[in-house]
Amino acid sequence: MGDNSPMIVEQNVPLQPHNTFGIVAKARTLVRIGGESDVQAVLAHPGLGAEARFVLGGGSNIVLTGDVKAVVLKVEVAGRRIVEDGPRATIVELGAGENWHEAVTWAVEQGLDGLENLALIPGTVGASPVQNIGAYGVELQDRFESLDAIDLVTGKVFTLDAAQCAFGYRDSVFKHSPARDSDFGLAGRAMILRVRLRLPKPWKPVLGYVDLQRKMTETGIAEPTARQIYDWVCAIRGAKLPDPRVIGNAGSFFKNPTVTPEQCQDIIAREPGIVHYPMPDGTMKLAAGWLIDACGWKGKSVGQAGVYDKQALVLVNRGGATGGEVVTLARAIQTSVYERFGIRLEPEPVVV
Ligand code: EPU
User: Fold this and answer.
1) Which of 53, 88, 119, 293 gives 233 a disulfide partner, CB atoms 3.0 to 4.6 angstroms apart?
2) Thinking of the domain 80-200, which architecture would CATH place it in?
3) What percentage of residues in the chain have a pLDDT greater than 70?
4) Is 279 helix (H, G, I), strand (E, B) or coil?
5) Burial class (CB in 10 A: 0-12, 13-18, 19+), 280
6) Is 251 in the pocket of ligand 1 (CB under 6 A)?
């Protein structure tokens, strides 16, 4: 696919392999996108051009509640290359359709250090800026240089820098829609084609996160290499997060909520064990997993949708769950956390 090859339009395509929750649903129409010319061909197509569109990456952050009627644009833009190797940083460019973890592994194997804390996050490169993926003290925005995207109305390709992406905690311009958020946002309006990452030189390890500190103590390694950190992160994630290839899931289902220091004191007075972290802006972040766990949800289910028994923040598909069951379970969790703590949990995945 890509330049000069004919557009392939598929009908009634099973989406179960294309969403990490493993929910059974179909795309009425699906077009594989290898590059900008494929998007332009869809826009110019007499039938498809006028229909609603839905951009599908690795399907790691969606809950499908039925068949998708909009034309599914499956992002398959490939490529991994070094575009600049300067004295202060190496810039790598990755196609949006590349698997994120395989790209991180490739980088580590090339000695391109800086992405190791983000190992084993499910999904594709194109999805990484959308929710500003983060783990173990590093967020995508800390390694971001720029991206190329295509306007799904005009077919024009444009480039955005970090400021234009408006990154926040699990948030970016790509999660906001102009209709909902007063003129701000590119949700449904653009498709990410390529992402460029900046890996600063000299490399500095990020080891502040408790789980990594524990690994350092256990192994006696005080100055780990990037490869070592990569292995540790894979081991930590493997121990408490379900592998989507085995148990369907979409990672953390809710964001960690932030509260004012006063609200936090109030909650601590009632619940001394609550896990909380001070943020640079003075607010307090609470561990949503702890809140859900405290409400007794670990291991519980609604139909075939369940709460993972090793990490209450992760909802799982125990086999044949529907999107409706996942949504019902998520709402029940939100209600009980609200009733006990007065805190509203906000979901991370998008319900489709
Ligand atoms: N906790 C419990 N019970 C639980 C789950 C967690 O008491 O069932 C407690 C833990 O003991 C710990 C605290 O809650 O003290 C935080 O848990 P954890 O270290 O597992 O991290 P998290 O806050 O639940 C976040 C990210 C993850 C990321 C990890 C590591 C969010 C929503 N989640 O999880 O990201 O991998 O930190 O950095 O920010 C994702 O977004 O999909 C994701 C997996």
Assistant:
1) 119
2) 2-Layer Sandwich (3.30)
3) 97
4) coil
5) exposed
6) yes
Residue type, 9: V
Q: Output the CA 282–ligand 1 centroid distance in Å.
A: 20
Q: Which of 240, 252, 300 to mutate to test the pocket of ligand 1 (most atoms within 8 A of CB)?
A: 252
Residue 210 Cα, ligand 1 centroid: separation in angstroms?
11
Which atom of ligand 1 has the smallest separation from the CA of 131? 41
pLDDT, tens digit (0-9, with 9 covering 90-100), for 303-313 = 999 999 999 99
Are 264 and 286 in contact, with CB atoms under 8 Å apart? yes
CATH of 248-351, one of 2.60.120.380, 2.20.25.90, 3.40.50.720, 3.90.78.10: 3.90.78.10
Q: Which atom of ligand 1 is nearest to the CA of 256?
A: 32
- The residue contributing the CA closest to ligand 1 atom 26 is 135
**Domain extents for the chain?**
8-75, 80-200, 248-351
Confidence of residue 183 (pLDDT cuts 50, 70, 90): low
Residue with tokens 């992160």: 233
